[in-house]
Amino acid sequence: MASFDSSDSETLREQSNHKKRRKIGHHTAADHNSAAAAVPWRSDAEQRIYSRRLVEALRRTPLSPARPRAAGQVRETADRVLAVAARGRTRWSRAILARRRKLWTHHEKAKKAPRNGLKRTTERTNRLPAVQKKTRVLSRLVPGCQKISFPNLLEEAMDYISALEMQVRAMSAIAELLSAAEPRRPESPAAR
Amino acid sequence: MLHCANTLGDMTVLERMKWQEEEAFCSGFSSVFCSSSSSSSSLHVHDSIMLAAESGSALAEVVAQANVQAHAQAHVSPSISRTFSCPPTLVEPDPKPKPKPKPKPKPTDSSIGIKKRKPDNPKFVAENDSSKDKRIKVGADDGESKITGHPNREEEDTKQNSKVSDYIHVRARRGQATDSHSLAERVRREKISERMKYLQDLVPGCNKITGKAGMLDEIINYVQSLQRQVEFLSMKLAAVNPRLDFSVDDLFHKEVVPACSVNFPNMGVPSDITNYLQFNLPQQQQIASYGGLVTGINPSDMGLRRTISAPVSMPETYLHSSSCFTQTLPSSTWEGDFQNICNFDFDQARSPSFPSQFFSGLVEAGNLKMEM
Fold first, then answer.
1. Which residue in chain B has the smallest CA separation from A139?
2. C-beta of residue A48 within 8 angstroms of C-beta of residue A55
3. Which of B165, B224, B289 sits opposite A65 (nearest CB)?
4. Mean pLDDT on A69-87
5. Quick one: pLDDT band at residue B184, thresholds 50, 70, 90?
6. Which residue has the higher pLDDT, B201 or B53?
7. What is this structure's pTM?
8. Given an 8 Å threshold on Cβ–Cβ distance, is A67 in contact with B226?
9. Comparing B63 with A9, which gets the higher pLDDT?
10. Which is nearest to B184 in space by CA: B162, B199, B169, B203?
């Protein structure tokens, strides 16, 4: 699903690069949409919905016996619930949801790694535009944003940051409630 | 809403026919738009319009279409742009027909692209001084480079917001290059700067930083810190996870203590305990791993120790919280507390000895595992 979307948008972008007159309408429409969509991340209702869904999802996930992986599982669950909450309008959310399906095919990663390494070394020696390096780093941080244009990357980063903030708020609230919910000793009922 | 229908009824047939070419669309939509806001009256307006336009069958068709399509945003949005200026036209139809032809050429203009639109639009001739005039954007905000100097500005804005045109109309500012390349560059740059501004608001502490490189640094740091926070919180949640099962309701209803006291008298059904037995036995292998977890994660140690008494006092939760038991096995204080509370809980129990036997067995098993 994410691959289809990316291919469509990339062909469009290629067309626009070829022609002098760019079809910017798509991007502006997306900009308006995402600028509007960035706001709901801050609402309380959204956070509550996310918390509830996260708790339900965590209940359903089977805890792995090997503890080191449990944190990763929780993290993945949290990310997935967050991506679902994004309602598929943003690229990073689609990439997160597609991550699970691919099940981390390492073949793809192995293939791409040497190519990228070569490119990176030559590019580093040739020119060092700090902005480009940082753009690359940022594109690696935001899931699914490896090959998109700079303005779109900024847009995705915007939405991703608001979503992450909400995720942190919700998860810290849950963790706090859970850890504070234990003192049920008959002697100290007033902890909550 | 109803006054629209009245004015329509007052107009002659000829005038109505004139309207039908361009304005009728607008007025029909406007009347529908007015009426659609109050859905109950829409039918009335529709009927009255139908009655009024005896010969204006086209108008009625338009209105009918508009009524049908009034819900589809795509259809209404291009017309909404016209409706803002339409209500005055209903009252005074005479001066308006002249400005009205302008909405029509818009779709054709939009296909032209990023160029100076002067040669294409006769309406600009009157405003421009010379052929090479570069006009200051009329009514343009600093951040908005896409507004053209159109007389009906609000229509243009709404029109651009609708997805009819694929191209952005850009006007060259005074003293700037009018090359299509540079215009496109400028559009792109302004898009980027607009988004950078948004990001500046999002990322804390970016107010003083100007320049893309610095901003990007801050953004990267912030995203990394947020992701690290999520990692840490997920670790914390994973440690506290077994509590999710029975504390979900408590979380959201915030009735932690009353829930505990309510469940207390209900305990003591032997079937529960037997279920607990069956439930617990297969999970003994988890004991060691959970024990390892407890020793491994220091910050949550305290939290775990404190969670001991809570699950113990709720007999129903025995079914779910077996893993919680196993978690807290290694701590010696737990055993002491546990047995105390166990005795306290099962004071009124039917078979107090039975669970205590079982628990001690569990403890032994746990100890065995730990020694391994």
1. B220
2. no
3. B289
4. 84
5. very high
6. B201
7. 0.45
8. no
9. A9
10. B169
B257 → closest Cβ in A26, A72, A192: A192
Read off the DSSP letter of residue B282: G
Residues A179, B240: C-beta atoms closer than 8 Å: yes
Q: Which of A70, A134, A185 sits opposite B309 (nearest CB)?
A: A185
H helices present in B174-321, as ranges = 180-202, 212-239, 244-253, 256-266, 270-280, 285-296, 299-307, 309-313
| CB-CB under 8 Å, A67 with B199 | no
Percent of chain A with pLDDT strictly greater than 70: 56
**B313 contacts in A (CB within 8 Å)?**
184-186
A72 CA to chain B: closest CA distance, Å? 7
Which residues in chain A are closer than 8 Å to B201, comparing Cβ atoms? none
Among A59, A154, A189, the residue with its CB nearest the CB of B248 is A59
| Whole-number Cα distances in Å, B247 to B207, B220, B259, B278 | 42, 37, 10, 23
CB count in 10 Å sphere of residue A147: 11
Please check whether residue B206 is in contact with residue B218, taking contact to mean a CB–CB distance below 8 angstroms.
yes
User: What is the structure's pLDDT at B20?
Assistant: 56
pLDDT tens for B15-44 read 555 555 555 444 544 444 444 444 444 444
Q: Do A178 and B240 touch (CB under 8 A)?
A: yes
User: Could you give the CA distance from residue A93 to residue A90 in angstroms, rounded to a whole number?
Assistant: 6
* CA-atom Rg of chain B in angstroms: 37
CA pair distance B216, B270, nearest whole angstrom = 63
The residue among B44, B52, B81, B50 whose CA lies nearest residue B65 is B50
Long-range pairs for B351-354 at CB < 8 Å and ≥24 separation?
A: B351/B270, B351/B273, B354/B270, B354/B273
Does residue B183 contact residue B172 with C-beta atoms inside 8 Å? Answer: yes
Specify the pLDDT at position A70: 77
Contact yes or no for B91/B7 (Cβ under 8 A): yes
